[in-house]
Amino acid sequence: MSFNNYIGGEWVAAKSGATFERRNPADTRDIVGKYADSGAEDVAAAVAAARAALPMWRKLAPDARAQFLYRAADILARRKDEVASALTREEGKTLMESGGETGRGVVLLRYYAGEGLRIGGDVIPSVNPNALFFTERVPLGVVGLITPWNFPVAIPLWKIAPALVYGNTVILKPSELAPHTAHLLAEVFAEAGLPAGVFNLIQGRGTAGAALSGANGVDGISFTGSAVTGKKVALACVERGAKYQLEMGGKNPVIILPDCDMEQAVTLTVQGAMRSSGEKCTATSRAIVTEEVADEFTARLVEKVKSLKLGPGTDKDAYLGPVITSEAQQKILGYIEKAKSEGAELLCGGGVPTGEEFAQGFYIEPTVFAGVTPQMTIAQEEVFGPLLTVIRVADFDAALTVANDIAYGLSASLFTSNLGNALRFAREIEAGLIRVNGETAGVEPQAPFGGMKGSSSFSREQGQAAKEFFTQIKTIAFEKAG
């Protein structure tokens, strides 16, 4: 089947007539669909539709805008199984994870519907006793949302929902690797009755994303994806004076101390590293373990990883599915070979599984390396796959040094039963998302999401922090006449 863009309340083909296809990464014989391959003309049409809808939408009371989000939440909840199945089919993660992500999307919509009445402002003291001095938050305007394939429900919705409730109109450009989930989200908003032009969907590849980043009439871009692309988005926005927000990569550590609950530490380290085939920016990629417990931790870790079932996401017993593309598979295999050449010790996995059930998909065995030093390539660069490195250190001081000696600063975890160690970790780790006795991946919708250093553009998504990007401040003074 073929699927079009959604612009100005209408389903329309790309102006060029071009399409691209998406195949199931678990079985490439399965064509999910063909989608509009948009270009600059299509982006311009979406911008025009969003600008035309903006005056009406921004004038609505926040509660009126919130009602559309509540309706969308109810529709998505009703269609949860359909959306989760589509997500698994085009992206590869297990149905359990897809269902959880879709449920999170429902929560995000309801949360931001409630936030509509909390936009707020401040009354400010004035030196003039006859003046009323206050601030008001107003919509940013037309916002472009460029989203990745690995969380094709949650990430678009944690951008779309606050953008809409705070009075902006939206143009969503999803990854070409997860177009169908985005199409279903557009159907949800259409069914919820959003006025024409308030929400627009542009399908396509990098050309469409670049056109959206550079489009006059777009007041801001919220981007999640690679650091390389993020820098291009930032440059395009700076050149025309648009606001931008970037969420990019991670190289997330867990630190294992001798006083931890070892079973908990092993289980959650594996979960953080191997769920979603390691294809998430918050995935655990470095286990930094003190010498005192390194042998025990590593042995139990490898035993658990070897027991994980690899298979298509539709297999209810599968712990992890395929990676997203052949290119991703080859990139991960390249990192594995690089690790071997640099002297790391392969403890398990490291290859492509054999068997008929794997022949048509992009599978990588869950992989663990030991003997890794902090400056090895696999200890510094984001692999984005089911690969975990074990780094031995002398003590907690050394662990913190290694954990922070990285270009990224998204998430980090510590496993300990010592409150003093936990407090020190929270103060000294250079990361935006910090967990004690929890996995590196995941944060609740009401909490700010974002990182430090090369992981983010010094802004936060989700929670009340979202209003900082999607609104701007007016400072207003009323003075006595005469």
Describe this entry's structure for a reader.
The protein is of the alpha/beta class. The protein has 2 domains: 2-248 and 456-478, Aldehyde Dehydrogenase, Chain A, domain 1 (3-Layer(aba) Sandwich), CATH 3.40.605; 252-436, Aldehyde Dehydrogenase, Chain A, domain 2. The protein contains 15 helices and 22 strands. It has helices spanning 40-59, 62-78, 80-91, 95-115, 154-165, 179-191, 206-213, 227-240, 262-274, 291-306, 326-341, 377-380, 396-404, 419-428, 466-470; strands at residues 2-3, 5-7, 10-12, 19-24, 27-36, 123-124, 131-139, 142-146, 169-173, 199-201, 220-224, 243-247, 252-256, 284-290, 345-348, 367-370, 387-393, 408-409, 411-415, 433-436, 452-453, 471-479. The strands form 6 sheets. The protein has a 7-stranded mixed β-sheet with strand order 15-16-17-14-13-19-20, with helices on both faces. It has a 5-stranded parallel β-sheet with strand order 10-9-8-11-12, sandwiched between helices. α5 links the parallel β8 (142-146) and β9 (169-173). α2 (62-78) runs antiparallel to α4. The longest helix has 21 residues, at 95-115. It is globular and about 80 Å long. The protein starts with a strand and ends with a strand. The mean pLDDT is 97.
